[in-house]
Automatic annotation (TrEMBL):
Subcellular location: Cytoplasm
The protein's enzyme class: ligase
Reaction(s) this enzyme catalyzes, per UniProt: UDP-N-acetyl-alpha-D-muramoyl-L-alanine + D-glutamate + ATP = UDP-N-acetyl-alpha-D-muramoyl-L-alanyl-D-glutamate + ADP + phosphate + H(+)
Organism: Kaistella pullorum
GO molecular function terms noted in the UniProt entry: UDP-N-acetylmuramoylalanine-D-glutamate ligase activity
Signal peptide: none
Enzyme Commission number(s) from the entry: 6.3.2.9
Function: Cell wall formation. Catalyzes the addition of glutamate to the nucleotide precursor UDP-N-acetylmuramoyl-L-alanine (UMA).
Record protein name field: UDP-N-acetylmuramoylalanine--D-glutamate ligase
Length: 447
């Protein structure tokens, strides 16, 4: 069988490595430049590869193409591959075919990384043999090749789910839906939402599907879709006979038995994190993890980097890095959790954002807006009649300088961009790290 892997990043290199280890004929192709560490890995592993081009003739001879999630499905090469009828899978789909481990897969528009990391923390704390992968951490495929885990906790994006034929997790979680990546889904919200629901399409009645009862789009689609897995809801608005809910500042999970704890004991703050904690606890209960172990994990979990990460507190001003907020809904959660007047740094590559969703929160919580991007016009036009103080910048240094000059004692400076990072930064991590560096420079100068 001829395997061609498209993309030479973490997932692509891992998939090529697994293919080679399983004795398959594998070739990796990346139209861009492969990073030095991945190039070295491919050379040392003896995997044939090309970069800076696609040998189309060779690609179109493949029996199975493994596509990295960063390659747009509308790319010209993908059109030719689909025309030839070649099977296309994501690394997630490919690697799952080579493991008997139980897979817990998490998707949603927001909170994926936090909830995936939290479930991993719960399983690890209970001494289970567990791997962490997908859109986070090390390549799932490479772990399948080298490790012997009983469980995998995977963060899964809509782009990875687009290329699913047989992927069947033991437990799937759909945390929430909001308008994101619409540029890749014909600006059709339902089309994007249905891509997320593919996480459960191959599940059977001995599997579990955890979903958000408060999420309007999820509820609408559940009326139309036939889900075979056992469905378990969570809600922060209403009580559940079975599932997870919030009542009197206490989170409760009811399955065969009951787990409860005060939300004041959670290490994560904000209503969205109560929802994430409920979803993670349900997964823990399905896997028969003891209540005390779940409680301890929820109390000791450390927040994910670049997600409402407190960077510094000096001059009476808090500096918060939420660079991972790449859509409006994620910024909504960040703004909702702010307790003090906020100087908000926002902007980047717009993905079809509707800022009306956060208009009221911005009026209530934000004292000044600092735009950060190559093209800030859409944000400026939307908020110009709603906020007096709006500034424009095209570098992190300038944005942080402006925000620092505007913030007074008792305020917060929040980077929660609402947008993708690719106009000025390599990725959201690079954006968040630059923010932290600039803030720490100012702190050092102030001291």
């Amino acid at each position: 069988m001829k395997i061609v892997v498209l993309g030479g990043g973490e997932s692509g290199c891992g998939a090529a490595y697994l293919a080679q280890k399983k004795g398959l004929d594998v070739f990796l192709s990346d139209k861009g430049t492969i990073k030095e560490n991945y190039r070295k890995f491919l050379v040392e592993s003896g995997i044939e590869f090309e970069e800076g081009t696609h040998d189309e003739e060779r690609l179109l001879e493949a029996d199975w193409i493994i596509k990295s999630p960063g390659i747009p499905k509308k790319a010209a090469i993908m059109h030719k591959i689909h025309q030839k009828g070649i099977r296309v899978s994501s690394e997630i789909e490919f690697a799952a075919e080579f493991t008997e481990a139980k897979i817990i897969a998490i998707t949603g528009s927001n909170g994926k990384t936090t909830t995936t990391s939290l479930i991993y923390h719960i399983l690890k704390n209970d001494d289970l043999k567990v791997g962490l992968g997908g859109n986070i951490g090390k390549s799932f495929a490479k772990q399948v090749a080298d490790e012997n885990f009983d469980y995998y906790v995977l963060e899964v994006s809509s782009f990875q789910l687009d290329d699913v034929q047989n992927f069947r997790p033991y437990i799937s979680l759909l945390l929430n839906l909001s308008q994101d990546h619409l540029d890749q889904y014909n600006y059709n919200y339902e089309e994007y939402a249905l891509a997320k629901f593919r996480i459960t399409e191959n599940q059977e009645n001995d599997n579990f599907f955890i979903y958000n009862k408060d999420d309007e789009m999820s509820q609408n689609l559940l009326q139309k879709l036939e889900i075979k897995a056992r469905m378990i809801p969570f809600s922060i608005k209403e009580k559940m006979r079975e599932g997870g809910y919030l009542t009197n500042q206490k989170m409760v999970v009811r399955l065969e038995d009951e787990f409860a704890m005060d939300i004041s004991e959670l290490s994560l703050v904000g209503n969205h994190n109560v929802a994430n904690s409920l979803a993670a606890s349900i997964a823990g209960k399905i896997l028969n993890i003891r209540n005390e172990s779940i409680r301890h994990s929820l109390m000791t979990f450390q927040a994910v980097e670049h997600r409402l990460e407190q960077v510094a507190d000096f001059g009476g001003v808090k500096y918060i890095n939420d660079s991972k907020a790449t859509n409006v809904n994620a910024a909504y959660y960040a703004l909702e959790s702010m307790k003090q007047p906020t100087v908000w740094i926002v902007g980047g590559v717009d993905k079809g954002n509707d800022y009306a969703e956060i208009e009221d929160l911005v009026k209530k919580k934000v004292k000044a807006i600092v735009c950060l991007g190559l093209d800030n016009q859409k944000i400026i036009d939307f908020f110009k009649d709603k906020k007096e103080l709006i500034y424009s910048s095209s570098s992190m240094e300038k944005a942080v300088d402006i925000a620092h000059s505007l913030a007074q004692k008792g305020d917060a400076v929040l980077l929660s961009p609402c947008c993708a990072s690719f106009d000025l930064f390599e990725n959201y991590e690079d954006r968040g790290n630059q923010f932290k560096n600039e803030v720490l420079k100012i702190e050092k100068a102030a001291n």
